[in-house]
Design goal:
Layout lengths: L8 H18 L15 H4 L12 H21 L24 H6 L7 H11 L11 H7 L31 H7 L5 H5 L6 H15 L16 H14 L3 E3 L1 E2 L2 H5 L5 E2 H5 L18 H8 E4 L1
Parallel strand pairs: 1-4, 2-3
Helix pairs in contact: 7-13, 9-10
The protein binds adenosine-5'-triphosphate.
Family: Belongs to the helicase family.
Cofactor: Mg(2+)
GO molecular function: 5'-3' DNA helicase activity; ATP binding; hydrolase activity
């Protein structure tokens, strides 16, 4: 269905992409606003014919909702309901504090004497390139200066992201993906768990390991109710192969599931699976890519 059909998967995808592009440009929104329709709105009720209920008139409900949505957007954008740019006289800016906090402590708090506007003037005084920036665009410019140690945005290091491997040098001739996989810390404790595998885990372990050893290229489906030790088995397999200097790629369908596997990644990230699976969708990596090299070199993919 074409993207001009409102509500179709392509329309929704286009809206999602637009929203993400806006977030990239302007940063995360402060307010997330949703609007729902009340079928008992007077504007709907008064237009119903005798004996009709709102459920009988989706055409009417949709029109009233659309009109109200347009009105809401109009008020938000034209009447500055969500506030204007904050301007203030010297030392007359707003400071947020909790009602139980002592005023003196609030006033003496580091940074309490500054606001975005004072930072804007200071940046204009100190940096020539800041003089061409509008106040409206200032937060973005200021965040970009974080490398100089002054950021109004958060430091990327405060997010629990996997460490960036700085030691990688593409001159070594190995793709970054392979290098990163080879750099996963060896979980020696996991390899020892092999002796504690139960009978069924051991049977699966032996079959999988023998297929790896003989390079048979087999496909296994490990199934079992929750908590029966599938992840336990994967940890032993990953540790054993990695200890042997082999590449074992660990993937899962969700980020949380991936995070409990040592060196785990989501399947979408590892195999570059597109977010929307249309007819003919393919993973987005080429034969020469690092991802392809990693998959060729791997002994086991979970
Ligand atoms: N052979 C074993 N010896 C000792 N403990 C085990 C063994 N197998 C699994 N466990 C323990 O049982 C618990 C559940 O195991 P695990 O997380 O591997 O299950 P799972 O099948 O992956 O669960 P889910 O499907 O919910 O992800 C874990 O605490 C794990 O350490």
């Amino acid at each position: 269905m074409s993207p001009s059909f409102i509500g179709s998967p392509r329309d929704m995808r286009r809206r999602y992409m637009d929203a993400m592009a806006l977030v990239r440009k302007f940063g995360k929104p402060d307010i997330f606003l949703t609007m729902t329709c009340n079928p008992n709105w007077d504007e709907i009720r008064t237009e119903l014919l005798p004996g009709q209920t709102p459920q009988d008139r989706p055409d009417l409900v949709v029109r009233v909702f659309h009109a109200k949505l347009q009105e809401l957007k109009h008020r938000l954008t034209k009447y500055d309901i969500l506030g204007k740019l904050q301007l203030h006289l010297l030392n007359m800016h707003m400071v947020a504090f909790h009602e139980r906090q002592m005023v003196e402590r609030v006033v003496n708090r580091p940074g309490a004497d500054r606001s975005m506007l004072t930072a804007y003037f200071e940046a204009n005084r100190l940096h020539e390139e800041a003089r061409g920036i509008l106040y409206r665009d200032f937060p973005e410019w200021y965040t970009c200066q974080s490398g100089k140690g002054k950021s109004m945005g958060k430091d990327i290091k405060t997010f629990p992201l996997p460490p960036i491997i700085d030691t990688y040098d593409d001159a070594i001739g190995t793709a970054r993906e392979v290098y990163e996989e080879e750099s996963i810390e060896l979980a020696l404790a996991d390899a020892v768990l092999k002796d504690s595998l139960n009978e069924e885990q051991m049977a699966a372990y032996d079959k999988i390991m023998s297929a790896v050893k003989t390079d048979q290229g087999r496909l296994f489906f490990v199934d079992g109710p929750g908590g029966t030790g599938k992840t336990y088995l994967y940890r032993v397999l990953l540790a054993t192969l990695r200890n042997q200097g082999k590449i074992a790629v660990a993937t899962a369908t969700s980020g949380i599931a991936a995070s409990i596997l040592p060196g785990g990644r989501t399947a979408h990230s590892r195999f570059k699976i597109p977010l929307t699976i249309d007819d003919g969708a393919v993973c987005c990596f080429t034969e020469q890519s690092g991802t392809a090299e990693l998959l060729r070199k791997s002994s086991l993919i979970i």
